[in-house]
Amino acid sequence: MTLVRDYEAEPGNATAQEARHGGTGSVLRLVWSVFRQNRLAVIGLGMILFMVLFCFVGPLLYHTNQVQINMSAVTRPPSARHPLGTDNVGYDVLGRLMLGGQSSLEVGFAAAILASLWGTAWGAIAGYAGGWLDAIMMRVVDSILAIPYLLIVLILATVFIPTIPVLIVVIALVSWLATARLVRGETLSLRVRDYVLAARGAGVRNGRIIFRHIVPNVIGTIVVAATFSVADAILLLAALSYLGLGPPPPAANWGGMLSDGLTYIYDGYWWLVYPAGLAIVLTVMAFNFVGDALRDALEVRLQRR
Amino acid sequence: MAAYLARRVVQALFVVLGVTIIVFILLQLLPGGPARALLGPRATGLQLHEFIVANGYNKPVWQQYADYIDHLVHGNLGYSYHYNQTVNSLLAQDLPKSVLLVGLSYVVSLLIAIPVGILQAVRRNKPVDYALTGVSFVGYSMPVFWLGILLVLIFAVNLHLLPPEAPQGTSIGAVLSQPAGLILPVATLAIVTVAQFSRFMRSSAIENLVQDYIRTARSNGLSELAILFRHLLRNSLIPIITLIGLSLPAVLSGAVITESVFNYPGMGLLLWNSATVRDYPVLLGFTVVVGVATVAGSLLADVLYAVVDPRVRYS
To answer: B196 vs A145: CB contact, 8 Å cut-off?
Structure first.
């Protein structure tokens, strides 16, 4: 599921607006001071850091064989040798969880970054150009939004072999729309600001105005939208894996581990289901909580000022 | 208002046109084409050629698109090779069942989300607020297929309270005659959508709680419950109207997975089956119907907005 999200900061919550006239350091300090008031978000940030360390540093400390299958040790329950047991082809589940997390997080981060870049460029150009170009570009966004994203992803994932880079691009293709809309909305109000008019009067090229003067002022919105995108991308990857369109073995991802494990749920092999499932839920929740707090801390809706 | 409405209708038409173009482009990408997909790997070149000519796939792409639009304008959504039926009849058969599933889960989800959102707003940043935020996000963050299977495990396998599978049958009457089977699929879809409605309800209520009219009502001595239900609820509900329309494509994506988990004989299952056999016309037909529904929904929401809230004036 992809959430239709609220991008407005709450009234009465502290925001970091006032510090904008200070230096970069003071802005970041203020953003942090607002951010840390939200306890769920601080926990979420801790969880994200933990997951990144677990998946990328963990395998350096905890060595397991994740290449060769071992049919003599399948679906073993947790023991001292295998803290989370082994799966249906004998992989150590704890080690697999680290490897799978790498894919899930990589896809999540990369798709979010790609979607942010494309969405920002699209939204800023549409908003700055205005008129017919804006109308056409935004109707394209509306059209894609009106199609269930699963259908688009489904078709694309059947066309191309679903390797990790392909999945990143495919997921990014349905994730840039919110960013584009938000950036366009803010660009509309920014392009009539005095400093933009002054730049234009001084003969600065349009491309430079967009990317040097407008985009830096909507960076808060972009960061918030990107944070939510990471969560959605991880869930979307899981849904694709369930439909059999995830990265093929021996690659692993949390969603694939979960849907494979669910085949055995009636046999009582709980360690094939809950570790992967919890990893997804905790990570997705963490990114959502952090996104919520960032939205308040960065006061996303510029128009209000 | 009339001018605004006219502009929105024209915009909506362009969006629908955009939907058909995008889906058409996507379908052009499919490898092997429909002939190979339908006739199988052992089809001869002649058979493939005959199929391609008979279905107009040898024409230029723009001509194929123009033909498609021409049929669409006449209410003809195409012909499914796989099911050997018109897409219209497939949709007529399966769409009502999905509308039932999605509609019921919207109702359940809103019935939970509205009171929860208001409670969270009133108890903002208190333990209750944090707890409910946590719980609703757990529901949202769970992969839909896991949630569905977990509910089956608990309520069907362990407790023997509900059937593990959705109601079967081709007609909506058959589905309705087994209401117990509907509970788990509806619950699954409702649980994953609660979070988005309760979040919006919460922030909408928070925004309204600081308004003057609430203070006035309080100073007039109204009871807190009367304020919440007579004043706050009505005003806070307005943004939810838009959200219902906007969230439709996302909820339908969830419905595809839910239907495949519970083997629910609706559009989602049909869509998934059609995608695996590359039944182009069904995919196109489904997408166009959903696209039109979404666009019409958001148009309706904008109009309702003005009706429900007299303060909204379009210029």
So the answer is: no
Which of the listed residues B35, B60, B87 is the one where a domain comes to its end? B87
Shortest CA gap B141–chain A (Å): 5
Q: Which of residues 66-95 of A touch B (CB under 8 A)?
A: none
Chain A from 18 to 37: CB within 8 A of any B CB:
none
Last residue of a domain, one of B39, B62, B87: B87
B170 and B274, same structural domain?
Answer: yes
Q: For position B218, which CATH number holds?
A: 1.10.3720.10
ipTM reported for the complex, 2 dp: 0.82
Confirm whether B315 is domain-assigned.
Answer: no
Task: Give the model confidence (pLDDT) of B86-128 as tens digits.
Answer: 888 888 888 888 888 888 998 999 999 888 988 888 888 788 8
Q: Report helix, strand and coil shares of chain A as percent, to nearest 5.
A: 70, 0, 30
Q: Do B29 and A1 touch (CB under 8 A)?
A: no
- Put simply, whether A285 touches B (Cβ < 8 Å) is yes
On whether both B108 and B25 belong to a single domain, the answer is no
Q: Is B142 left (phi over 0), alpha (psi -120 to 50) or beta?
A: beta
Q: Do A155 and B27 touch (CB under 8 A)?
A: yes
- C-alpha separations of A301 from A126, A185, A189, B41, B197 in Å: 18, 9, 11, 55, 20
Q: Is the pTM of this model over 0.90?
A: no
Instruction: Report the SS3 class of residue B79.
Output: strand
Note which residues in 238-267 of chain B have CB less than 8 A from chain A.
Answer: 243, 246-247, 249-254, 256-257, 260
B31 and B151 together in one domain? no
The CA angle A150-A155-A158, to the nearest 5 degrees, is: 120
Smallest Cα distance from A218 to chain B, Å? 22
Structural domain span for residue B168: 90-308
Q: At what angle do helices B248-262 and A149-159 cross, to 10 degrees?
A: 60
Terminal Cα distance for chain B, rounded = 6
Domain count, chain B: 2
Q: Flag whether B141 is in a domain.
A: yes
For A124-175, what is each residue's pLDDT tens digit? 898 888 888 888 888 889 888 888 888 888 777 777 778 888 889 888 988 8
Which candidate, B85, B138, B213, places its Cα nearest to that of A284? B138
